[in-house]
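Lecture notes, continued. The same structure-token format from the folding unit now serves as the input rather than the output. Read the line below as a description of shape only.
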């Protein structure tokens, strides 16, 4: 019996589940430069979907991504990406100002409506415009999406998780 327990403890940890693979994508980074899956390949990375005029949940979610740095060792820190669901208002300059308020190392991405729709669909994220004219808001998925170094979609971290819980979940993937 002890031998069975001892042997069981010697097994390598199970690989994290793979929920799918994100096809290659190319958006525009906050400085107007192209940025996408090619730059992220080889790294664990986390992404969220936001819009820069969001009054509540988007800033809270991006702040959680910022706090991960303080909870993880330097070699455990994922690349962090915030993707706009409001390309009509969220220009590269707007994304630059948004991420600068949290951590300039977060990549703030925008693109054309078709590019954003393609990326959101790949992540299984949903979003829609609510309201008319200039006074509209965006409803959207609220989560942190975790990708492995090969661009495979590993897990979703609920927005309600505390940063320490998010860090623990990420450490299991590293």
């Amino acid at each position: 019996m002890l031998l069975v327990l001892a042997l069981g403890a010697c097994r390598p940890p199970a690989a994290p589940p793979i929920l799918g693979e994100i096809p290659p994508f190319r958006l525009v980074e906050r400085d107007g430069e192209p940025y996408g899956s090619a730059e992220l390949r080889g790294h664990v990375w986390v992404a969220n979907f936001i819009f820069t005029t969001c009054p509540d949940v988007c800033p809270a979610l991006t702040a959680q991504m910022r706090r991960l740095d303080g909870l993880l060792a330097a070699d455990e820190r994922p690349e962090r990406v915030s993707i706009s669901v409001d390309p009509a208002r969220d220009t590269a300059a707007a994304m630059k100002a948004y991420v600068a308020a949290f951590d300039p190392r977060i990549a703030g991405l925008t693109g054309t409506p078709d590019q954003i729709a393609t990326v959101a669909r790949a992540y299984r994220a949903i979003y829609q415009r609510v309201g008319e004219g200039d006074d509209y808001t965006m409803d959207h998925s609220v989560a942190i999406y975790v990708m492995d170094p090969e661009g495979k979609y590993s897990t979703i971290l609920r927005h309600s998780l505390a940063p320490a819980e998010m860090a623990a979940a990420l450490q299991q993937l590293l």
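Point for the exam: The CA atoms of residues 129 and 138 lie 5 Å apart.
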